[in-house]
Design goal:
- By secondary structure, the chain is α+β, with helices and mostly antiparallel strands.
- The chain is elongated.
- It contains one helix and three strands; from the N terminus they run βββα.
């Protein structure tokens, strides 16, 4: 099982027809966001696909912030619990 969760709604592909595509994924363990360009080192996007990538990054950033807030709240809650014997 991968620690990364990709944005499955993203379908941005290279505008020149090379088959290259993008992937935006959230690391569920750290909250970091991975932007990958698959099958090549460069990709040219149409304006619509660039908007899709930007939207996917925005969604991942929002989810990352939510994940980190939840982890911080959990850590605070755990540290305020009285020790058990």
């Amino acid at each position: 099982m991968s620690v990364f969760r990709s944005d499955l709604s993203l379908g941005a592909r290279d505008a020149t027809g090379t088959g290259a595509e993008t992937d935006v994924a959230l690391n569920l363990a750290t909250g970091n966001i991975r932007l990958s360009i698959l099958w090549t080192q460069e990709i040219q996007l149409s304006a619509d696909d660039a908007d899709q990538v930007a939207d996917a990054l925005q969604r991942a950033a929002a989810e990352s912030r939510s994940l980190l807030k939840h982890k911080e709240a959990q850590a605070t809650e755990d540290s305020s619990d009285p020790p058990t014997a």
